[in-house]
Amino acid sequence: MRSRSPSCDGIAPVPARAGIGVKPAHYRDLLRTKPALAFVEVHPENYMGAGGPPHAYLEVIAGTYPLSFHGVGMSLAGAEPLDRGHLSRWRSLIERYEPALVSEHIAWSRFDGISLHDLLPIPYTNESLKLVCEHIDEMQNTLGRTILVENPSTYISFRQSEIPEPEFMAQAAHRSGCGLLIDINNVYVSACNHGFDPCIWLTRIPGNLVHEIHLAGHSVIKEDEFEVRIDDHGSRVSPDVWNLYQETIARIGARPTLIEWDTDVPELAVLLEEANRANELATQAGDAYVDVA
Amino acid sequence: MSTLREFQTAMAGYLTATPGPNVPEALRKLLLPGESRADRRFTIYKNNVYARLVDALRDTFPAVERLVGEEFFRFAAVEYIAKTSPKIATLLTYGAEFPGFLAALPPTAGIPYLADVARLEFAYLEAYHARDASPLGRAAAIVGGDDVRLPLHPSARLMTSPFQVSRIWELNRNEASFDNVTLPQLREYLLVIRPAREVEVRRLHLGAYAMLLAFDGGASRAEARREAEWADPDFDFQTHFATLADTGTFVGTSGKDRPL
After folding, report:
1. Chain B residue with minimal CA distance to A193?
2. What are the residue boundaries of the structural domains of chain A, listed by start?
């Protein structure tokens, strides 16, 4: 039997295998070939128009695959209140499509009535933890759903941070009752950019909180002595990230795993190759989680 | 002031300002001392913000980009973004004011039709994302006689231009090459509409345009007919009305899109 992600109030079971992020360029190929996928993930922000082809396609996709809504604009770590209009558009989409998974980021993107359209970092303090938990509560209550929150990739780290990132994530989950979405590429990118050990970071996340994993590619900028990794989701998953993925699921068990690709989006076949690779590793890892539960 | 709000105030100010190398001291001092090249690190965020918005404008205005070239488009887009921050978390309809911005941008004066091409591209985008609705057929549209008020399909957008803007758009909306074309300077009246899956750009007679403007303003069929015949005394109302009804221009119940 295939393993399933841990049961948790409000989180529908999705097979602990690979899914892909789908873009408009893939609609036709996906629905013509209907490849085996554990789930399909979309950014709800791209479906906040009133009608038209995006909704027509999403209706068919939702009838074919379990759906995951992965938000990028809620600004859970924003110092100002959540945008009510945005929450209400989210809620309409949840009611219409009933996605199996719902997730957002530990990041901010909104300030003073302006949407910055990037996932921006915060200092990890008791103050920001409290605020993030309040916003997670508000999002969960408004949507009537348990959400997952994702660790960001970052290029700066703060003097004021007083809580290590993995602890901040786990605390947010414990206090608000949300689950975690661990993006292993983000852990790796941040680890390289700030000089910490990604293996240790990952072992500090309690496995029972993790309901989804993200995998993506990144790029490297080298200028003289300075090297920085950019989380651009524009290439295949790197070998180091595959290794971290393998180690992680060997420890916590297989999880629903997304192949994410947002820039220079390739044809569907390339995403499916990456998904197959994740599936092979997930099969090897087996159902460790189910045994633990 | 809380430390989080202090940081986000400074960061948002930095990210929305016109691109430049200067990272405010208020931001730099927040970094962990071990982090090298603070300026370079903050620049990554700024580049991300601008790149995403430039891409959104490029997706919406491909013909404008082709007409002015990639480099000038990027310059215009960055100027626009610095003045027009998005207010909502979806970029589906970002760029509503870009046509007007282009019209007022001095270097585009040599391309007088540019802003109208941009208006057409934005109308196309709005029609694409508009609310779905089942059009009324001809028979249903005729029932009700002269008193009937027929709302246009929620995707319908009407526009007019002193230039052959739909032809310029057709030639430039993809990368296909074409020989030099001379277009007559004739006013165009356009209906952009998506009665089913595909967005259509239809060229209208002046009378038909006047009729649809009247229907869109809530006029009855008799009033719309008077408007059309006033604009164009030779206008064959019955034929045009039947054709427009057959092609899904009208719906039975009123309803413009709710704004996002």
Report:
1. B35
2. 18-292
* Cβ <8 Å between B87 and A112: no
A25 phi and psi, to 5 degrees? Answer: -60, -20
Give the number of other Cβ atoms within 10 Å of residue A143's Cβ.
18
Q: Are strands B200-204 and B188-193 parallel, antiparallel or unpaired?
A: antiparallel
Cross-strand bridge partners of residue B160: B189
Instruction: Answer whether B188's CB lies under 8 Å from B158's CB.
Output: no
Q: Which CATH architecture has domain A18-292?
A: Alpha-Beta Barrel (3.20)
Write the DSSP symbol of residue B51.
Answer: H
Give per-residue burial for A232-251: e unless 16+ CB within 10 Å, then b.
Answer: bbbebbbeebbebbbbbbee
Under-70 pLDDT residues of chain A: 1-12, 287-293
User: Which secondary-structure segment (H or E) carries B140?
Assistant: helix B138-142
The complex scores an ipTM of 0.92
- Per domain, the residue ranges of chain B are 1-111, 113-260
Chain segment A175-192, per-residue pLDDT in tens: 999 999 999 999 999 999
Distance from the A44 Cα atom to the nearest Cα atom in chain B, whole angstroms = 9
